[in-house]
Design a protein that fits this description.
By secondary structure, the protein is an alpha+beta fold. The protein folds into four domains: 4-235 and 319-390, Nucleotidyltransferase, domain 5, CATH 3.30.420; 237-317, ATPase, substrate binding domain, subdomain 4 (Actin, Chain A, domain 4, Alpha-Beta Complex); 411-534 and 578-593, Substrate Binding Domain Of DNAk, Chain A, domain 1 (Sandwich), CATH 2.60.34; 597-790, Substrate Binding Domain Of Dnak, Chain:A, Domain 2 (Up-down Bundle), CATH 1.20.1270. The longest helix is centred in the last third of the chain and has 46 residues, at 676-721.
């Protein structure tokens, strides 16, 4: 069973697995620990991860990035054009259900894919990388998501994982995963069982490629509690790159009279170099930015200073402090309550970003007073936390007990039609999960359904809607164009079951906010009050023992008492006692949420399986083509030199000509576009000629070694049997003759076989192979070893001498004494055997 954590990032993805009593990060096919989150499409196949990154420059318009940002988003969202379009190469279009999609050329045909499909393709690549590393199929996993993701985005990611064949045990927030990886390994956390225990409060600041997340987390031994969060979905490292791109574009326009921003490919080249420049400026005060052939066959170069760069990104940096203050406000803590600040994400390495964080939390440039900490691996800690969470959910691994209590980021309300039924409040809506509400969480709701105007026996339905409270959610970082609707639930078949004349019934349902952040309504129940008859049990009459003289005297009184009780009971039967009881009956509930319908899921899953099979076929075909090409080059060079003496002169020229023709064919249109079966057939045809030649060459090297091994073994056996040290005196002459004959036969066989081989030309078929010689050596050992390894017989045991007293006794008394001794031995032996037998059986039971 796989235990995998996936940090699905906007720029790169990191995979961690639990194994060997720890967490390891998986390397991809090119041994990188981070896999680019990109998908590219070509004439024959898809390119995923590293191969997509290499295609990005040459296959510009068919390479798609920003997968994480656009999954679950609508094409009509204005933020798509404002924030996402500058970073996307492929053209965006509207899908069938209004979702944002891309239009690409795949297999020389225009195709439209939704971002759910694109993420499914990419997760399939992550699955293949992990399966290759673990040597077992991967299924169970935990995937990280930004805390600001809405339910629609979370469900879209969950659907994509399902299409890719992954079983997502849980979706976990990025900062919560980092906190889990931080806390589960700590052994010095405060113990809540001790008096005056003060939790350790840590701030996690995660500034990644495209967003910023802040989380305030409280730690005690065995538990973490997320106290508050704050997000900026639109500030990350890519925004710093974009600011530098715009600055450099202005410099190029002024100096080189070229507007690179009008050329998408030139913009891409400039953005790539600006990203490298940003990293260099983190360690150096000044650097040179060079871009070769950026546009119109011209190169550009300019100097960039760190101070200049920091001035460019100042508008973004000014958003950090309000975000930190918001996180503290939600968590209801002060800066003094923060024990340390863990930095996560590559952008926290930028010096000016780190300075702002240090000034806010520490208030001093003194390194000894700084609360900033980098004990976590900034690039891999989220993936490790996901792997820990997967191990917690897995029955295969035993993990230290650790409870994770997350918090709700967006307020959620439910509403209903007050004309149809009465809810918990008269307004028709209520906030059920507020900001900071613990996750997971469950609350029971009760609705009253009036039935006065409904014919008897007619069932009614009750609809409940769940929504985000829009204004408050947008303030918390929810994308503005995301629909606040979460889902609709309809409770069906509401009608009285026992009290058919009831004018109203109560319906209860449990609202849950599950660990994935999904809203669910479960356990719908019809509650009705009915009157039932109370049946009293008759009390048993207890008769006391009477004295003989009083029995006749009391018998009359007893009959009168019995008659009175009988009349009272009859009166009670006429007026039965009734009481009100509550009866509960389960109801059915249907749900409509943002998950894809099963029909669309099946269509996407089938399409993904077909594309995956096509990719595998293309890769296998390319592998067979390369194998054929490699065989042609390798064999042709050896036939003229290494294999020259082992090639039949009558076929040598024809074989070389055949190899040359095969090379020429490979570079024709037919050869480059051939199918896998054609390459396999042509390789087999060449091997029918080439393999015997290679075999004769290798045999010329291996056969002398095999011959020497057999002769050495024969000599060793002969030396043993002729040593004369008495080791084999217990072996009969017939058996020794069998050994000698076997050695003679094997010697004669080997001499004849080698002589026959020496008579042949090197290019002729072999008279004997090294395998034949080694087989004869094995057979010889199988015949001789059982004879020479036969153990010597054990020496005969000496009879004990009779005691002196027994010799002095008369001969006629000896038999009597021997019989008495034997009887005594039998009497004493039986208990010992029983005890031994009992002991052995007890050990077997144990």
């Amino acid at each position: 069973m796989s235990v995998v954590g996936i940090d699905f990032g906007n720029l790169n993805t990191v995979i961690a697995v639990a194994r060997n009593r720890g967490i390891d990060v998986v390397c991809n096919e090119v041994s990188n620990r981070k896999t680019p989150s990109q998908v590219s499409f070509g004439p024959k196949q898809r390119y995923l991860g590293e191969s997509a990154k290499t295609q990005e420059n040459s296959n510009f318009k068919n390479t798609v990035s920003q997968l994480k940002r656009l999954i679950g988003r609508q094409f009509s969202d204005p933020e798509i054009q404002e924030y996402e379009a500058p970073f996307i190469n492929a053209p965006l279009v509207e899908g069938d259900r209004g979702e944002v999609s891309v239009k690409v050329m795949y297999q020389n045909e225009p195709r439209v894919f939704t971002f759910t499909q694109l993420v499914a393709m990419y997760l399939g690549k992550i699955r293949d990388i992990t399966s290759a590393e673990l040597k077992i199929p991967m299924s169970d996993c935990v995937i990280s998501v930004p805390g600001w993701f809405t339910e629609k985005q979370r469900r879209a990611l969950n659907d994509a994982a399902d299409i890719a064949g992954l079983n997502v045990l849980r979706l976990i927030n990025d900062t919560t995963a980092s906190a889990l990886g931080y806390g589960i390994t700590k052994t010095d956390l405060p113990d809540p069982s001790l008096p005056n225990c003060k939790p350790k409060i840590v701030a996690f600041v995660d500034i990644g490629h495209s967003n910023t997340q802040v989380s305030i987390v409280s730690f005690v031994k065995g538990k973490l509690t997320v106290k508050g969060t704050a997000y900026n979905p639109n500030f990350g490292g890519r925004n710093l790159d974009l600011a530098l791109v715009k600055h450099c574009a202005e410099q190029i326009k002024e100096k080189y009279k070229m507007d690179v921003l009008t050329n998408p490919k030139a913009t891409f080249r400039l953005r790539t170099q600006c990203e490298k420049t940003k990293k260099i400026l983190s360690a150096n005060p000044v650097t040179i930015l060079n871009v070769e052939n950026i546009m119109n066959d011209r190169d550009v170069s300019m100097t960039v200073k760190r101070e200049e760069f920091e001035e460019l990104i100042k508008p973004y940096l000014d958003t950090l402090e309000p975000l930190l203050q918001d996180a503290l406000k939600v968590a209801k803590v002060t800066i003094d309550d923060i024990d340390s600040v863990e930095l996560v994400g590559g952008t926290t390495r930028v010096p000016c970003v780190k300075k702002i964080l240090n000034d806010f939390f520490s208030g001093s440039d003194d390194a000894s007073k700084s609360k900033l900490s980098t004990t976590l691996n900034q690039d891999e800690c989220v993936a490790r936390g996901c792997a820990f969470m997967c191990a917690i959910h897995s029955p295969v691994f035993r993990v230290r007990d650790f409870t994770v209590q997350d918090c709700n980021d967006y307020p959620i309300e439910i509403n209903w039609d007050n004309n149809a039924f009465e809810g918990p409040v008269p307004e028709g809506k209520v906030e059920i999960f507020s900001i900071g509400n613990s996750v997971p969480s469950a609350k029971r709701c009760t609705f009253t359904c009036p039935l006065a105007n409904i014919p008897n026996g007619t069932a009614v339905s009750c609809q409940i809607n769940a929504n985000y409270i829009y204004d408050k959610s947008v303030e918390r970082g929810m994308p503005r164009a995301i629909t606040p609707a979460i889902g609709e639930w309809v409770i069906n078949n509401i009608k009285p079951v026992e009290n058919l004349e009831a004018e109203k019934v109560n319906v209860t349902v449990v609202a849950r906010l599950n660990p994935n952040g999904f809203v669910e309504f479960t356990d719908p129940t019809l509650v009705e009050e009915v009157m039932v008859e109370v049946k009293e049990e008759k009390k048993e009459e207890k008769k006391e023992e009477k004295k003989e003289g009083e029995e006749n005297e009391e018998s009359g009184e007893a009959m009168e008492t019995e008659n009175a009780e009988g009349e009272a009971e009859a009166e009670a039967e006429k007026q039965p006692k009734m009481k009100k009881v509550t009866r509960k009956h389960p109801l059915s509930i249907t749900c409509k949420n943002s998950s894809l319908p099963s029909s669309i899921m099946n269509t996407y899953r089938e399409a993904e399986n077909q594309m995956h099979a096509q990719d595998k076929l293309v890769i296998d075909t390319e592998y067979k083509k390369n194998a054929l090409e490699e065989y042609v080059y390798d064999t042709r060079s050896k036939v003229g030199y290494t294999y020259a003496d082992f090639v039949d002169p009558s076929i040598k020229d024809d074989f070389l000509k055949q190899l040359d023709e095969m090379e020429d064919w490979l570079y024709t249109d037919e050869g480059s576009e051939a199918t896998k079966s054609v390459y396999v057939k042509k390789l087999e045809d060449l091997k029918k000629i080439g393999d015997p030649i290679a075999f004769r060459y290798h045999e010329s090297n291996e056969r002398p070694n095999a011959e020497k091994a057999l002769r050495d073994t024969i000599a060793q056996y002969q030396k043993q049997i002729s040593a004369g040290d008495g080791r084999y005196d217990h072996i009969s002459e017939e058996e020794m003759k069998k050994v000698v004959d076997e050695l003679t036969n094997k010697t004669n066989w080997l001499d004849n076989a080698i002589a026959a081989q020496n008579q042949k030309q090197k290019w002729e078929d072999l008279a004997v192979t090294s395998a034949d010689i080694l087989k004869e050596r094995e057979n010889m050992a199988f015949t001789i070893n059982p004879i020479l390894n036969k153990p010597k017989p054990a020496p005969p045991k000496e009879e004990p001498k009779p005691e002196a007293q027994a010799e002095e006794k008369p001969a006629e008394e000896a038999p009597k004494e021997e019989a008495a001794a034997e009887a005594q031995n039998e009497d004493s032996a039986t208990p010992m055997e029983d005890v031994k037998s009992t002991s052995e059986s007890a050990m077997e039971v144990d």
